[in-house]
UniProtKB/TrEMBL annotation:
InterPro entries: AKR (IPR020471), AKR2_Oxidoreductase (IPR053135), NAD(P)_OxRdtase_dom_sf (IPR036812), NADP_OxRdtase_dom (IPR023210). Residues 21-320 form the NADP-dependent oxidoreductase domain. SUPFAM superfamilies: NAD(P)-linked oxidoreductase. The gene is txxe 1274. This is Aldo/keto reductase,aryl alcool oxidoreductase. It comes from the Bacteria. It holds the Pfam family Aldo_ket_red. PANTHER family: D-THREO-ALDOSE 1-DEHYDROGENASE, NADP-DEPENDENT OXIDOREDUCTASE DOMAIN-CONTAINING PROTEIN. CDD domains: AKR_AKR11C1.
Length: 332
């Protein structure tokens, strides 16, 4: 069991919500990460809550709503826990009709029902095409839902720095969810400082690069057919960046071996990888996934490990620039 420091909390931009710096994403317990066990998922959620986690990220397409239902059971009656969910990918994300008031309200009401809530704390557009963000009509729709009290605040889950910068042009976008880890450092260059200056919160996803940054994989590691690390390895189903942070698997395994040193004195490579994200002052919270109580414990351990020194930060920056960046596929 985790011992040591108490959970720390950070402002989610200027939303007025203070969120646990280590929070959790629920894609894995919903599906697309191999076998799941609902009882174990609920136990894991309870462990996270017991440790002080007060923010969970989900989406209507995680297990076709199953992740939302599990989360609803876990936080029933707890108005001190914030829930972020997402919409649009249950339909054709390229169809402008998906982003109309009538359509978004239906998505929203369905999520509220599954979550057992009257209001969504953070409602996010779920990795829409760049042109949808640029046109901005969906944000007017979300303004209306906020006025009606169905959502507290809204944000965008983006695939690239360009999309994040476009979203920042809309003043009521209060949070950006981005892929950010030791293998994907680009957002820290321009996007994070601009978001911080505007009071926009940052949620860091794919924090362990789909498990690469645990250091547990070899080139021979295999995954189940219903695991995105198998069926989306090269971006066959959705953006390649969501799987292994856009790296070819074998390349990612090789690079992860070269990063084994980060775990020295920090308990594990996974804890160190999350610690590195938390060391960035612009991060509101990191949202690693989980399927078991032990995975929750392992991720929570990152709060207690030593931060990276300036020399270590410089070493990791050089590693990214010289050895990683050229191998990343997809828009980022």
């Amino acid at each position: 069991m985790r011992t040591g420091c108490e959970m720390k909390y950070r402002p989610l931009g200027n939303t007025g919500m203070n969120v646990s710096e280590i929070s959790f994403g629920t894609w894995a317990i919903g599906g697309s990460w191999g076998r799941t066990d609902d009882a174990e998922s609920l136990n894991a959620l309870a462990r996270a809550i017991d440790a002080g986690v007060n923010f969970f990220d989900t989406a209507d397409v995680y297990g076709d709503g199953h992740a939302e239902e599990l989360l609803g059971k876990a936080v029933k009656g707890r108005d001190d826990i914030y829930i972020a969910t997402k919409f649009c990918r249950a339909a054709d994300i390229h169809d402008p009709a998906v982003y109309t008031y009538e359509s978004v309200r239906k998505f929203c009401e369905a999520s509220l029902k599954r979550l057992g809530r009257d209001r969504i704390d953070l409602y996010q557009v779920h990795c829409p095409p760049t042109d949808i963000i640029r046109r901005g009509e969906v944000f007017g729709v979300l303004d209306r839902l906020r006025e009606e009290g169905l959502i507290r605040e809204y944000g965008v889950s983006v695939e690239s720095v360009e999309e994040g910068l476009i979203a920042l042009q809309y003043p009521n976008v209060k949070a950006l969810q981005v892929i950010f880890n030791v293998f994907r450092q680009k957002p820290a260059e321009e996007l994070f400082p601009k978001a911080h200056a505007q009071g926009v919160g940052i949620l860091a996803r794919v924090s362990l690069a789909s498990g690469l940054l645990t250091g547990k994989f070899t080139e021979q590691t295999t995954f189940e057919p219903d695991d995105h690390r198998r069926f989306n390895r090269n971006g066959e189903a959705f953006n390649v960046g969501e799987t292994f942070a856009g790296l070819p698997f074998e390349t990612g395994v090789r690079l992860s071996r070269e990063l084994a040193w980060i775990g020295e004195g920090r308990g594990s490579m996974a804890a160190a990888a999350i610690r590195w994200i938390l060391d960035n002052p612009h991060i509101s919270c990191v949202i690693p996934g989980f399927k078991t109580v032990s995975q929750v414990e392992a991720n929570l351990a990152a709060a207690d490990v030593p931060p990276f020194t300036e020399a270590e930060q410089a070493r990791l920056r050089e590693f990214y620039e010289l050895q990683v960046r050229e191998h990343i596929r997809g828009p980022y």
